[in-house]
From TrEMBL:
UniProt name for this protein: Helix-turn-helix domain-containing protein
Protein origin, superkingdom: Bacteria
Pfam families: HTH_17
Residue span, Helix-turn-helix domain: 10-58
Length: 69
């Protein structure tokens, strides 16, 4: 989640897409819709790893979400 210094870890759109098993376009749509927070760096986006983990846990629902946290 965070590195040894306590700074948040950021993922590229491609890394998020691979982790969530969706296309990069789906990740871009989620970012632009505000469903997934991201930081713009130049022409690319970086997504906080914690935000991806939270989104996945919420998507799993009560049965799996509690175990994922």
């Amino acid at each position: 989640m965070a590195d040894q210094l306590g700074a948040p870890r950021f993922l590229t759109v491609a890394e998020v897409a691979q982790l969530m098993r969706v296309s990069k376009m789906t990740v871009y749509r989620m970012v632009h819709a505000g469903d997934l927070p991201a930081v713009r760096m130049g022409r690319s986006f970086r997504v906080p790893e914690a935000a991806v983990e939270k989104l996945i846990a919420e998507g799993l629902g009560d049965e799996w979400g509690a175990a994922a946290q």
